[in-house]
């Protein structure tokens, strides 16, 4: 049994195709098929049902893949450890960030990170929380940046900062007369929220439930963009909740419509998450440090704020 054979098995399991797996591993399909068959013969087991389309794992194959993925990740981590110890910090990081965070966080740290680490290549993609977790499990990502806790087995959470929620209210809204808001000031029926699939939507709705009714009869428009929610408030009245980083570039007129909450304010915990066996530990440590240094100091600790459960 070799690491290469295990990587071939994982590629087939992830793609459901011997042909696609061969392309992913940069080998010919006959070469990949021969190595997988050799592994099956050596172990006297059958890993795949080759009569299905896409190719499916057998019951033994499913258990085998779980363990094989762990071994391959550890092997990659060991190679990365040796490489990093022999040379200047270099390599590539493939990370993902949730859409409600990426437009506001990335400009704060990405450019500085690359300038400080000229031999590191950084690839960043926007995915929802569930997509990030899935891609971490299959080794398609090195890390994700999102709201936690997740309570996902096999996922390590490294909290980096805590971001408050603020209210953005329309010009004529009664809440503009208040300098500081309390949780029970928020009427869920006046809220504009993100569409299904965004963890920020769940956080907002959980927060609004403190009002008591738990009903959202006016939530007919559900956007995939925080900027669109702001525009709907400007055009159609009502209010929305925004993450604090989203208002850092607001002008004076826009800030006149922002209201902060009385302490303890609602916050969300933002973490760098990895698989249980991260391959590029040293690069991730540098990335984590860069993010912490980029956000306002007051976000470094939760302090007296309360975190909303997702």
List the helices and strands and how they pair.
Elements: H1 3-15, H2 18-25, H3 29-43, E1 48-49, E2 56-57, H4 59-86, E3 91-97, H5 102-116, E4 120-126, H6 129-137, E5 143-148, E6 155-169, E7 180-181, E8 193-194, H7 199-208, E9 222-223, H8 226-236, E10 239-243, H9 252-255, E11 258-261, E12 266-275, H10 281-294, E13 306-307
Parallel strand pairs: 3-4, 3-5, 7-11, 8-9, 12-13
Antiparallel strand pairs: 1-2, 5-12, 6-10, 6-11, 6-12
Helix pairs in contact: 1-2, 1-3, 1-4, 2-3, 5-10
What does this structure look like?
By secondary structure, this protein is an alpha/beta fold. It folds into three domains: 3-84, Orthogonal Bundle (Arc Repressor Mutant, subunit A); 88-159 and 270-302, D-Maltodextrin-Binding Protein, domain 2 (3-Layer(aba) Sandwich); 162-267, Periplasmic binding protein-like II (D-Maltodextrin-Binding Protein, domain 2), CATH 3.40.190.10. It is built from ten helices and 13 strands. The strands form three sheets. Strands 3, 4, 5, 6, 7, 10, 11, 12 and 13 form a nine-stranded mixed β-sheet that branches. Strands 1-2 form a two-stranded antiparallel ribbon. The model is unreliable at 210-222 and 303-310 (pLDDT under 50).
Give the tags:
D-Maltodextrin-Binding Protein, domain 2; 41% helix; disordered C terminus; 310 residues; nine-stranded mixed sheet; 10 helices; two-stranded antiparallel sheet
